[in-house]
Amino acid sequence: ETGVTQSPTHLIKTRGQQVTLRCSSQSGHNTVSWYQQALGQGPQFIFQYYREEENGRGNFPPRFSGLQFPNYSSELNVNALELDDSALYLCASSLEGRQTMNTEAFFGQGTRLTVV
Amino acid sequence: KQEVTQIPAALSVPEGENLVLNCSFTDSAIYNLQWFRQDPGKGLTSLLLIQSSQREQTSGRLNASLDKSSGRSTLYIAASQPGDSATYLCAVAGFQKLVFGTGTRLLVSP
To answer: In B2-12, which positions are buried (b, 16+ CB within 10 angstroms) versus exposed (e)?
Structure first.
């Protein structure tokens, strides 16, 4: 167990709907990153939050947004869901400085999102 | 743009064999490299982390090496067991993010 927990574990949504996924970081970690993993692929970086601010973003449209709270837990919000958004969404926490990423990332068990 | 490739995509071995998984990356400007294990439908379990200044790391039956100049890493698994069956992912840490390969799916038969 890494101490990173995600909820819910599974979710089914209809195309066009909105979804919120949640992540509780490992104790003491100040950085949360979100990844999308399509079936048979490696995880793709969505964005990172460091001390409640977005600290980097991958190649995902603005309908993917996030929040990090003072206790360093985080949310991933996806608006106007599309069928291709069906994937495993992974949250990772780490203890970072703003300009570096050289510490170990610990991942949660993921949320399996199915869009129908 | 960093690209990470893992070879082979799939590997099937009998129990007890020693095996090597390969990972290559195109940009040597990395902070570290991590190897992860992923069971079907599950999250990622960190196996080993090698800092960019290190050459190798060991944990139990696992040994990972890093050659930054050639853009390569290997994960060596000694005396494989059926419980080692999983997908193994390598990821290189650049600024703010990890870039993953597509993984090697390992099956160890009893």
So the answer is: bebebeeeebe
